[in-house]
Amino acid sequence: MAFRSIIRIVGMLIGLFSLTMLPPVAIAMFYDDGGGRDFLAAFIVTLLIGFILWMPNRHSKTELRVREGFLIVVLFWAALGSVGAIPFLMSTSIDMSFASAFFESFSGLTTTGATVIEDLDSLPKAMLFYRQMLQWFGGMGIIVLAVAVLPMLGIGGMQLYRAETPGPVKDSKMTPRIAETAKALWYVYLCLTVACMMAFWLAGMSLFDALGHSFSTVSIGGFSTYNDSMGHFNSDVINFITVLFLIISGINYALHFSAFSAKKFSFNIYKEDPEVRAFIFIQVFLTGICFAMLMNHEVYETIEHTFSQALFQAVSISTTAGFTTTSFADWPLFLPVLLIISSFIGGCAGSTGGGLKVIRVLLLNLQGMRELKRLVHPKAVYKIKLGNKALPDRVIEAVWGFFSTYALVFIICMLALLMTGMDEISSFSATVAMLNNLGPGLGQVAVHFNEVGDASKWVMVMAMLFGRLEIFTLLVLFTPVFWKN
Is the model's pTM score more than 0.85? Predict the structure, then answer.
């Protein structure tokens, strides 16, 4: 293992990340909110940390292998979340404990969207912008951004890309070279962000709020600049725009690239994809159930408002964004639990959503159907097809392996939270929220996580990392075979 080369790369990436603390300085100067000095100090500290790691190892250059790629991704996310907490710790506008600052930082970068801050309305604009920007960089994965400039760093990027990209299929590339693939991903990501920002602005948001909420919408993060989240705007138009861009961002970005790079834009690319069809069906199904139950219990006064609330919360929670317009935890009967459980499915592979991913749930369902058929016809040979393509058994085995490991990590995290003193409902929903990168939960964590103890916060930070890196990327580091030559 080329440890010195790995430390050099992590140091350079932390140095690059320090630049993200400069835009809040500009925001502070523009709004004269007094927060610029804190971010400038945080920038210097972060840059210094990166320099200390890079300087002694600057001449250590070796080619990345798969093992190094996994280790760099995990180390960088851990380091990124740690240095990302520096502005929260140094801020004079908010008093945060060590655990709370790390929780907030990791929550932003992993696009979980859970917060320990009770009063967002009183925060300086610079701090609000920094929280939103953390989610935007975390959404697609700052590693993929770094891959676009890795030729400048003198290392190859395919190992990093495989370790970072969400979903079960890692080897498909949109362009022949990995650097071009990363640039293509960020081109689509940036275009969607600009389009979302313009739509919010035209719908009545201020330019600051439109930019901030476009960051957290396209990244499917869920942070807001207000205590009431999207409910602050009280606008069905803004709700619909949010839903539209959450659905777009919940679809595989490779499909977006294929659709927009074609000579003539065609929706057939989306219609022919079985994962997209399943994803849209899930959103329609959940919205229908929520709408019917809310109408039956007359929770809202008008049909239009009832449909708006049902659509928004169903899409927001199931795509793992976690935006709220109302306290869905107070909805009747099974609806809060249904929505929380729907986050297990999440978005499509290759999207910014969390959860298991639609493709995995789809394959698990097809595998279950195959086993039922085998009970009736034991000697028959059944192939699992996705669309018109038969999948190798190796893919199905990998999906089952992921699911079983996911379930095991879920149980361990939930038991750990119970050991710290949280009640059953809060522990269950908090584990779901962290592992699926959802954000809000039920019970004690329905609104914010400030009342949760420090020990619980550290457990949830680990759960966020497991969810963001899709279990295996982090878990492989705990296996003895990984460290053997």
Answer: yes
